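In the previous chapter we treated chains in isolation. Here, by contrast, the input contains two separate entities that must be folded as one system, with a combined length of 360 residues.
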Amino acid sequence: MKKVTQQWDQMLLEFLDGKLNSAQHERLEEALRQDATLRTRLNELRQMHNILQATSLEVPSKNFTVSVMGKLDQAPVQRGLSIRNGLMLLAGIVTVLSIAVVLLATGVFDQTTTVNLNDVSVAQRYIKQSLPTFSIDGKLLVNTIILLNIIIAFLVLDRAVLKPFFQRRMEGRSQ
Amino acid sequence: MTNDGDLLTIDRILAGEQSLYAGLVDRYKSYVYTIAYKILLNRPEAEEAAQDSFIKAYHNLASFNKQAKFSTWLYRIAFNTAISYKRKRRHNFQSIETAVIAYSGEAEGSLERNDKKRFLNIAMEKLSETDRTALSLFYLQEFSLEEIAEIMSMQANTIKVRIHRARQRVADELRLILQKEALTL
């Protein structure tokens, strides 16, 4: 069976919506007289249209308004990080922290690295002026990263684990 | 009630008359619930999402731009809330929902109407939640394409195309379902 083109489909839907002008209407009527496939498609679309037009609004429970009014003073449900995901994120942060602390303790970051930009071959080729030299204190850098991770870990613990946990407990008691 | 009526009510709620919010909830609960249901296809979860939408709207009432239509703003909150519920969906809702659909079907009335509703539900389930919501709002005939676009934070043209494709898809699915039904008779 041949398929109705997108253009005709569009026209049939506009016909069902009552949006065709008289010229388009006549053109469609003529096409419908001559094309059985188009008539079949119109019937399919009309069927869908009629069923959808007959659908009504869904009705919530009878005590919907009372429930909402009873919960108005509660904070809206936060659907951010779940407790499980929060715990997993926390575990990841703690693992990274532990590795960093162990490496720090073993003295991996004890050395200070001096970076001389003049030694970089690309810089030597394109830049004629002398470039600055700076040193990186590995221990200080890792300590800063550890400190930032500890702050993030506390925030995750508070927002994603403790707060939702105690909120649930309070809700459980109030019901 | 017009949007002006809603705005007066909102002013009084913000001035401390919290109980007036019940009037707004009563007026819009069916639409908010319908939006949530079309996205979640799960009555208990849709009820929770719809209630949560009203609570969010209440807590953000002071930030509502009074140049806009309250209902459109509320429906956008409902749409976004339901979408976030969908993302965080707990799978244990699924089995309950199947029972609810079967029950609501039985309570509906004539067999023919039940069948049509059942076939439509099956066909609509093939659509994405966005297309399903757009199509449902379109057929409620209360919203212009521009309003549907605003509720769903999309361009009106995009919504028009999505509704067009969704109608074609539903018509095709219904044809297939009816063919299968005819074969089993």
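Chain A has a mean pLDDT of 81. The first strand of chain A starts at residue 112 and ends at 116. Compare these points with the single-chain example from earlier in the chapter.
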